[in-house]
Write a structure and sequence with these properties.
By secondary structure, the chain is mainly alpha-helical. The chain has helices at about 5-20, 30-35, 40-45, 50-75, 80-95, 105-110, 115-140, 150-170, 180-194. Helix 1 packs across helix 4, helix 4 packs across helix 5 and helix 4 (about 50-75) runs parallel beside helix 7.
């Protein structure tokens, strides 16, 4: 890695942590420059605009999600073992990856009604996540773990809803039973798909 790449990674790591707690909108080049002890012009050279910074934070968070959670989960046996591995890893990830919520999931409510490049970017990422969940369900049907008539789209819709609710319960509500509730909701969904 070059020094410039190292600097960019350090900035994005810090910015992603901030976004997990405060959201993407409060991220400014000025505040970030102060936090990482750089000049505004030095930081601006890396990102060029607040919107570019927000988009790169989302990409950084997604890369981390894929590398640390999704790719290892997809290495599990196809079908229910893969779904369970994903769920186990996701629950741990949600608790430990960031000081707050996942920046991509948090951006859903922050940008859901605000047209523009950031909303479009979030929308693409969420559609890709749901597509991954749908493909996991298709694998479970092919492996004989889900009934042939089960709807992969419905499974993806409901599991994604469980993931969002769990993040809210964990970070906003400080629900001490969140692991139990998450596992029960997942078990109920799997039972209906069998």
């Amino acid at each position: 890695m070059t020094r410039s790449t190292d600097t960019r990674q350090r900035i994005l790591r810090h910015a992603t942590g901030l976004a997990s707690v405060h959201g993407l909108e409060p991220l400014t080049i000025g505040r970030l420059a102060d936090d990482v002890q750089m000049s505004k012009s030095g930081l601006f050279a890396h990102f060029r605009s607040k919107e570019a910074l927000q988009l790169q934070v989302l990409d950084f968070a997604e890369t981390r999600f894929v590398d640390e959670l999704l790719r290892p989960a997809l290495a599990a046996e196809r079908g229910l073992p893969r779904i369970r591995e994903f769920a186990t890893r996701w629950l741990a990830w949600t608790r430990t990856a960031y000081p707050g919520a996942c920046p991509v999931l948090a951006a859903i409510t922050e940008f859901d009604n605000r047209p523009g490049a950031v909303r479009d970017h979030v929308r693409k990422k969420i559609a890709a996540y749901r597509d991954t969940l749908r493909r996991m369900a298709e694998g479970a049907i092919q492996a004989g773990h889900f009934r042939p008539g089960a709807s992969p789209e419905q499974f993806a819709f409901e599991l994604f809803g469980i993931l969002l609710t769990t993040q809210t319960a964990m970070h906003l509500l400080d629900d001490r039973q969140v692991d139990t509730r998450f596992n029960q909701a997942l078990d109920d969904l799997i039972t209906r798909m069998r």
